[in-house]
Amino acid sequence: MIPYGRQDISDEDVAAVVATLKSDWLTQGPAIPAFEQAVMAACDAPYAVAVNSATSALHIACLALGVGPGDIAWTVPISFVASSNCALYCGATIDFVDVEPDTGNIDPAALEAKLIDAERSGTLPKVLIPVLYTGRAHDQARVHALCSRYGIKIIEDASHAIGGSGEGGEAVGSCRWCDIAVFSFHPVKIVTTAEGGMAMTRDPELATRLQDFRSHGITKDRARLVEPDAGGWYYEQHSLGLNYRITDMQAILGVSQMKRLVPFIERRNEIANRYDELLASAPLTRPPLVRGTGAVSAWHLYVIQLDPANDGALRRAWFDGLRARGIGVQVHYIPIHHQPYYQQLGFERGMFPAAERFYNGALSIPMFAAMTDDEQDRVVAAIGEVAGETC
Ligand SMILES: Cc1ncc(COP(=O)(O)O)c(C=O)c1O
């Protein structure tokens, strides 16, 4: 089976992890700050807090921004449930903004309309969590301008998007257009630490809160201690944090992987361009071109659309046909508000029509830096066969 995504682990990566295993530090050693430094340098951001998953990073991002009971958070329906669950963990209420029909990213026009309504009804959110779906930045400047107008904080869920840049050329994760940006280092993502995540920010106070929430709300920073002279063993708990720490073994893999961030992104862009050529006459809609002169997609996913007006039947036929031919296609994502858990919260099908249409047609075909041209040709040939049978 050619998977839709997978890690690319080099001998150098393996040697780095082995060296850490043989070192004095398995958990909280020098690899974690080194990994944070590598990501800060790549993203041009002054603060980074590495944690054990993007889910954890999203949770502490909400906590750091003071999201709690009585607050409202908005995200998009086309994402993994983590983008939305993070606000629920804090006791907040969640709602969704519909997506653009072509990119699957947040629709700024839908956001604007919803903000106007929310202001009237006194239900403005405290935080917006846009998702850089497939590694492509949304219209960050417009979303930022809208949120600034209403005093709303932004957490960018950039789980798919390390190594990419926005329409003006700013690196994703630089936090030019948000308060906090979050990355995932799951194996299918651009770079991996097995499980892992990171929260980026430009705000030193947010960075301190993120660091505290990562580890039980505990600090050893003498400048912040109530009793700074209590002794060398001394620490204080200042907030109710968690154990979301990443290990040195994972972080050193991240350090090693970050050395190949640029070639990973180049290869993913090469694969996307090649799909664009090879699928030019196939009966499907290819992902739209990236907007803006400076924009670069990280191409975490290459999502084709099949007959977007349909009820999902054609996508089902292609999914089954391609899986039967050894092509590990996947669907990203089942709209979050369709999940039974979210239906219990009061969400119903039909509430976010653009997201639902997008879902019905969406199919992720294999996209990963280590994919060979031969593997890509097999994907394209299988698509030709399935199209011949179904269209
Ligand atoms: C958009 C998005 N947000 C958050 C997550 C959660 O990432 P992690 O598995 O690192 O917790 C994922 C994982 O697939 C994701 O795709």
Which cofactor or ligand species appear?
Answer: pyridoxal-5'-phosphate
Order of helices and strands: EHHEHEHEHEHEEEHEEHHEHEHHEH
Task: Give the second-level CATH assignment, the architecture of the largest domain.
Answer: 3-Layer(aba) Sandwich
Number of strand elements? 13
Low-pLDDT parts are: none
Distance between the termini: 24 Å
Q: Please identify which CATH superfamily of the largest domain we are dealing with.
A: Type I PLP-dependent aspartate aminotransferase-like (Major domain)
Strand line-up of the largest beta sheet: 2-8-7-6-5-3-4
Description:
- This protein is of the alpha/beta class and 391 residues long.
- It folds into two domains: 2-258, Aspartate Aminotransferase, domain 2; 261-390, Aspartate Aminotransferase, domain 1, CATH 3.90.1150.
- Helix content is 39%, strand content 12%.
- The protein is built from 13 helices and 13 strands.
- It has helices at residues 11-21, 31-43, 54-64, 82-89, 108-121, 140-150, 204-214, 248-258, 261-278, 313-324, 340-344, 353-361, 373-390; strands at residues 2-3, 47-51, 72-75, 93-96, 127-129, 153-157, 180-184, 197-201, 218-219, 236-237, 302-305, 327-328, 362-365.
- Strands 2-8-7-6-5-3-4 form a seven-stranded mixed sheet, sandwiched between helices. It has a two-stranded parallel ribbon with strand order 1-12. A two-stranded antiparallel sheet has the order 9-10.
- The longest helix is centred in the C-terminal third of the chain and has 18 residues, at 261-278.
- It is globular.
- The mean pLDDT is 97.
- Pyridoxal-5'-phosphate (PLP) binds at residues 53-55, 79-80, 82-83, 131, 157, 159-160, 184, 186, 197.
